[in-house]
UniProtKB/TrEMBL annotation:
Start and end residues of each BD-FAE-like domain: 45-149
Source species of the chain: Thalassoglobus polymorphus
Broad class of enzyme this protein falls into: hydrolase
Lineage: Bacteria, Pseudomonadati, Planctomycetota, Planctomycetia, Planctomycetales
Dienelactone hydrolase domain residues: 194-260
Signal peptide feature range: 1-20
Family to which this protein belongs: Belongs to the 'GDXG' lipolytic enzyme family.
Pfam family for this entry, one: DLH
Originating gene: nlhH_3
Gene3D superfamilies: alpha/beta hydrolase
Keyword hit for Hydrolase: yes
Keyword tags: Hydrolase, Signal
SUPFAM superfamilies on file: alpha/beta-Hydrolases (SSF53474)
Name of the protein: Carboxylesterase NlhH
EC number(s) given by UniProt: 3.1.1.1
GO molecular function: carboxylesterase activity; triacylglycerol lipase activity
Amino acid sequence: MQIKILTLLLFCSSASSLIAQDAAPQPDRMVTYKKVGDVELKLHLFEKASDEKDRPAIVFFFGGGWNGGNPSQFYPHCRHLADLGFVAMSAEYRVKSRNRTTPFECVVDGKSAVRWIRSHAQELGINPDKIVAGGGSAGGHVAAAVATVPGLNAEGDPKEVSCVPNGLVLFNPVYDNGPDGYGYSRVKPRHEEISPMHNIRKGMPPAIVFLGSKDKLIPVKTAETFKAKMEEVGSDSVLKVYEGEGHGFFNYNRGHGDGSNYQQTITEMDAFLTKHGFLSKSQ
């Protein structure tokens, strides 16, 4: 009898897991934005059916230390924003575990993604001046670097098309690659070439940053320095520090508490996007 009950419980648990997986947001379609040799990089795209041609867009870059990771990390964020009228995308980009690449190629691909989105604004039904880049951890680095570093452009990309997004949504981002920052050993002596902190200049897009006060990879002091440097050049920079939280606290359904951090961060993200005209106040 006990064995039957245990078997039933295991079956129910497995069924619940499958239901949860089935209920997870899934892209509406995939589009290829770049090919490198036999590697095809895609945008996992979320959108509501619409004839509008002036929608805002956002592209997210997943975390994983430039080594791994998956676009599905930001599926919940994409579905949420697509329901509010965005064309929301989670981008594939080359990483070390799959492509034997370095952080430099990650940024190169990030720039290619934003350029592709802007170049295809008409067919995507988006406003090319309302493109946001976002990401978490190393993906936050990619988004921030796309906005800041002047080099690391792919051969063959249309350089006349700007890769600089119009806004940034960054979750515990790696944005200091200097000797006191993260990833220095992997990018020296070229750290200034790839470090967002070292390339802030006038005209940077507005940014919102989410960080846990107990993040062991990204100190709050680093975030405060980034904010100060952004404000020095006249760019809006919002910093949201979550007390007692560590790295990755913002993720949806990833074992980080009761989900309230995810809910609060997207609420604050929406307010930031509304403030800067990507969302209307009625949404």
